[in-house]
Automatic annotation (TrEMBL):
Name this protein carries in UniProt: Fe2OG dioxygenase domain-containing protein
Pfam families: 2OG-FeII_Oxy (PF03171), DIOX_N (PF14226)
Domain of life per record: Eukaryota
Keywords: Iron, Metal-binding, Oxidoreductase
GO molecular function: dioxygenase activity; metal ion binding
Claim: Metal-binding is one of the keywords in the record: yes
Taxonomic classification: Eukaryota, Viridiplantae, Streptophyta, Embryophyta, Tracheophyta
Signal peptide, first to last residue: none
Family: Belongs to the iron/ascorbate-dependent oxidoreductase family.
InterPro entries from the UniProt entry: DIOX_N (IPR026992), IPNS-like_FE2OG_OXY (IPR044861), IPNS-like_sf (IPR027443), Oxoglu/Fe-dep_dioxygenase_dom (IPR005123)
Amino acid sequence: MTVSTAKLPVIDLSSPDRLSTANSIRQACVDYGFFYLANHGVEEELVKRAFEESRKFFSLPLDEKMKLPRKEHRGYTPLYAENLNPDSSSKGDSKESFYVGPVRGSGNKAELNQWPSPEALPSWRSTMESYHDKVMSAGRRLISLIALALNLDEDYFDKVGAMNEPDAFLRLIHYPGELGSSDEELIYGASAHSDYGMTTLLITDGVPGLQACVCREKSREPRVWEDVPHVNGCFIVNIGDMMERWTNCLFRSTLHRVMPTGQERYSMAFFLDPNPDCIVQCLDSCCSESWPPRFPAIRSWDYLAERFRLTYG
């Protein structure tokens, strides 16, 4: 079956016309829930080094990787350990991943991170910390524009505590690219899902596979999928369920998936989520008498913890 290519807008994060940029973001989030982010300030050389270090880690023997099993949402997750679509009959998603949590902040947040042995991968930790810092900086700039896009003060998400030591997780992902051995065997790199949090900044190695569902309603059948190709120098940004909830469904949290192509694939997803204690409630600017709040207020971590429980068991 032929799949068309999504025609997503490109947002220039460096544009001095912030109001025009915010309006473009608003339109993209209402229409697609996806857009490309250009001129974001994360150097191409750093992206290249992060991908190189990611490949080095995933090429280690499994027993070495399993010395860093995922706990506190940090560390290694092996193949098939996750099924993002519980309705799917697949044996699990054909990917392995490694989570790096916040690398700065008070308390022991940064200390919860797990790191490969410096003897085996001497540049790994410093590279990932640098990459996390840089994408976090771009994410903060983006969130201020999203606030403007919602007719709020640009520091709104700071004022409500969302960006006070936010839960920002970097996920390194390796897809072996395996194909099913028969037409009946369902293999997904990542089964159909929407992201849970505020927003995601994704970059890939250029190998195709990412698809987004053009249907606004997640439950609508049949689903119509479009390819989301890599664009050099750009992040692929998508809105998460928590931001959809915050905006009372004005902004779309779009279903997406990764299909196997027979090619090995690497990506790095940066999940920018609020401070765990932040209260998420429908924004007044997104509600009216004819469109009342659709969700009760909820603490960010309570919401995310339940979503993680359903994914990982």
